[in-house]
């Protein structure tokens, strides 16, 4: 198959984007050729066929990666919330901790289907999902993994271990985590992390058990870290340590770990995280929505990997990248510093995702044929020297035109190839059931 008349943004040395105008050929899931052309050819229409997509001068990049998603939150639209939402803890207690406790198998599947459809539309084909369904933990990750696989996406999944619902459900969360780690240990497309809610809802015993899983299966943790001051306050009060100190004490920080949010950290925390090579995943939309504050981006050291997530607010980590650029400017970074900041995040994500998927593409010949065509035609000359100006102010503001994963077209000309009509009915049915269960929820 071939993509014609495209700006192909290749990655060189994991440190810069190099746009090349031309055609891309791919065969059996791999890029088999990149043929440079004169840009003027983009004005010549190419007859469409099942083997040719004419990009019409649009931009092709690597697929987007969502490093912190919550598929289980997808049906949580328009719910009738009883109780206060005036603080982060009350938002958790009166919305999310009620929502996750009522989820069943069908709702989990419907949520994953909705998440997959939204992800494809946003050019997201790699998803690090953090799942929670305390009353329905058994095989929940397998269900989500099957939805991802059936849709052609890749994922790194985990089940949220927490003690907030009592010892029995905490143990079941640990069992689901280990079961999934066993089943998918050699799967090329579905991987697993050890999921943890946050320090303030985890006992020392659960952290100790989570550490045993991490070392047994050579993986990392995926945890909410210092998203709100309540995490720090309760951790100090109950365990006499900060959240980061607790993670370090149980040897849970390593180079495969994702620490989501990382808002209320101090200099000592930064040093410990930097030493461990763990990554921090920022979720600016969620942080603004929950009024928990924002990190001081300028204080993050160069050697802490920084990633972009959505925290389940949406399926568009490209939006998060744009927000991170604008917020860095708002906090006082110069344009040069902010472009350097986005450069660090963009290439840092590639380095991190390769810890789970070593064959992640750089859009070079022989790489996996995973890529996104954006509905953006550069109006001015496009080169490696002004890549970020086009990326931040052009590409990130445009919708996705087409998506190809492992050489298979998932979306073409804004139309998802897979027929999701029956799944849409199923999603709506489950959404209505969830709405009523949540409305009638009793503690």
Detailed description of the structure:
By secondary structure, the chain is of the alpha/beta class. It has 2 domains: 2-57 and 368-412, Urease, subunit C, domain 1, CATH 2.30.40; 64-353, Alpha-Beta Barrel (TIM Barrel), CATH 3.20.20.140. It contains 13 helices and 18 strands. The chain has helices at residues 88-102, 105-121, 140-150, 167-183, 204-217, 229-239, 243-249, 267-276, 284-290, 317-330, 335-353, 387-393, 421-439; strands spanning 2-12, 16-27, 30-36, 52-54, 59-61, 64-69, 124-131, 154-161, 190-192, 194-198, 221-225, 258-261, 279-282, 306-308, 371-374, 400-405, 408-412, 415-416. Strands 1, 2, 3, 4, 5, 15, 16, 17 and 18 form a 9-stranded mixed β-sheet that branches. A hairpin with a 2-residue loop joins strand 16 and strand 17 (408-412). Helix 4 (167-183) runs parallel beside helix 5 (204-217). It starts with a strand and ends with a helix. The model has no long low-confidence stretch (mean pLDDT 95).
Q: What's the short version?
A:
The protein is α/β, with parallel strands linked by helices and 443 residues long.
């Amino acid at each position: 198959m071939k993509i014609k008349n495209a700006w192909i943004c290749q990655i060189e040395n994991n440190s810069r984007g190099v746009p090349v105008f031309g055609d891309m050929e791919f065969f059996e899931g791999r890029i088999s050729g990149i043929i440079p052309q004169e840009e003027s050819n983009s004005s010549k229409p190419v007859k469409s066929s099942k083997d040719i997509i004419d990009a019409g001068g649009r931009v092709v990049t690597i697929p987007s990666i969502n490093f912190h998603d919550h598929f289980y939150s997808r049906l949580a639209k328009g719910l009738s919330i009883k109780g206060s939402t005036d603080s982060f803890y009350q938002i958790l207690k009166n919305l999310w901790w009620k929502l996750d406790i009522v989820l069943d198998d069908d709702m989990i599947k419907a949520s994953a289907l909705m998440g997959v459809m939204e992800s494809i539309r946003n050019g997201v084909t790699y998803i690090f999902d953090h799942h929670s369904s305390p009353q329905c933990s058994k095989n929940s990750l397998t269900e989500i993994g099957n939805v991802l696989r059936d849709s052609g996406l890749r994922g790194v999944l985990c089940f949220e271990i927490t003690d907030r619902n009592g010892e029995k459900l905490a143990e079941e969360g640990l069992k689901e985590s280990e079961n999934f780690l066993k089943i998918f240990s050699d799967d090329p497309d579905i991987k697993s992390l050890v999921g943890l809610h946050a320090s303030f809802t985890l006992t020392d015993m659960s952290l100790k058990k989570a550490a045993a899983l991490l070392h047994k299966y050579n993986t990392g943790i995926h945890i909410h870290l210092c998203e709100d001051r309540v995490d720090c306050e309760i951790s100090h009060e109950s365990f006499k340590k900060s959240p980061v100190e607790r993670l370090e004490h149980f040897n849970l920080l390593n180079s495969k770990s994702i620490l989501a949010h990382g808002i209320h950290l101090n200099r000592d925390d930064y040093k410990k995280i930097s030493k461990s090579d763990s990554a921090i995943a920022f979720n600016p939309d969620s942080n603004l929505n929950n009024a928990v504050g924002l990190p001081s981006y300028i204080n993050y050291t160069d050697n802490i990997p920084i990633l972009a997530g959505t925290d389940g607010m949406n399926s568009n980590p490209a939006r998060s990248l744009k927000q991170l650029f604008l917020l860095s400017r708002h906090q006082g970074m110069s344009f040069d510093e902010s472009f350097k900041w986005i450069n660090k995040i963009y290439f840092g994500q590639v380095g991190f995702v390769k810890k789970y998927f070593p064959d992640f593409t750089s859009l070079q010949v022989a790489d996996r044929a995973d890529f996104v065509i954006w509905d953006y035609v550069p109006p001015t000359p496009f080169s490696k020297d002004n890549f970020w100006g086009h990326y931040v102010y052009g590409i990130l503001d445009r919708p996705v035109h087409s998506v190809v994963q492992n050489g298979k077209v998932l979306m073409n000309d804004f139309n998802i190839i897979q027929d999701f009509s029956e799944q849409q009915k199923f999603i709506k049915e489950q959404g209505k059931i969830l709405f009523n269960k949540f409305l009638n929820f009793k503690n």
